[in-house]
């Protein structure tokens, strides 16, 4: 879609490899304000900034995970579109692997975090478009494996 949304945001769908059960888990952060929703780390693109730079910056600001700790799958990305307070918002997410175990630290914007396998993450994130994104990213990883 080539729609220019009036609010642009970007982030990283971060996963880690797990030893048992599901092959990987996704990192979700819970907003510290209503509706206390869960999303991967992401946030608004600053004026003059591009989505890629914003996704990396927001991941560092919200989860204290730096670009150096990640292997970003540059070719695996998807943009969600949804309305917030009547304005169309776009959020471009890339898929990124957390290279080594790391304790997430949160900013004031979030009150909790968790790592969840696909089906749990789909339930936690609630929104249908996010479910499709997580399934697509998961398929990408399974094909790569
Ligand atoms: N994928 C989605 N589809 C529809 N609505 C969503 C989706 N994700 C979040 N929302 C809702 C939850 C909130 O009521 C509202 C704004 O949430 P969100 O886009 O996460 O922005 P935010 O202002 O909380 O954070 P940020 O600054 O990180 O963009 O939209
Ligand atoms: Mg944010």
TrEMBL record:
Keywords: Hydrolase, Nucleotide-binding
GO biological process: AMP biosynthetic process; ATP biosynthetic process
PROSITE patterns associated with the record: NUDIX (PS51462)
Nudix hydrolase domain ranges (all copies): 5-138
Pfam family membership, one: NUDIX
SUPFAM superfamilies in the record: Nudix (SSF55811)
One function term, GO molecular function aspect: bis(5'-nucleosyl)-tetraphosphatase (asymmetrical) activity
Family: Belongs to the Nudix hydrolase family.
Name listed for the protein in its UniProt record: Bis(5'-nucleosyl)-tetraphosphatase [asymmetrical]
Species name: Mesorhabditis belari
């Amino acid at each position: 879609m080539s729609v220019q949304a009036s609010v642009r945001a970007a982030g990283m769908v971060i996963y880690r490899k797990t030893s048992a059960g599901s092959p990987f888990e996704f990192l979700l952060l819970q907003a510290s304000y209503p509706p206390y929703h869960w999303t991967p780390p992401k946030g608004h693109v600053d004026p003059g900034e591009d989505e890629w730079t914003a996704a990396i910056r927001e991941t560092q600001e919200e989860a204290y995970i730096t670009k150096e700790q990640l292997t970003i799958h540059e070719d695996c990305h998807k943009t969600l579109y949804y309305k917030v307070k009547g304005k169309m918002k776009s959020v471009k997410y890339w898929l990124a692997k957390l290279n080594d175990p790391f304790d997430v630290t949160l900013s004031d914007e979030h009150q909790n975090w968790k790592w969840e396998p696909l089906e749990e993450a789909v339930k936690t994130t609630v929104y249908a478009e996010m479910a499709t994104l997580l399934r697509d990213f998961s398929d990408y990883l399974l094909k790569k494996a």
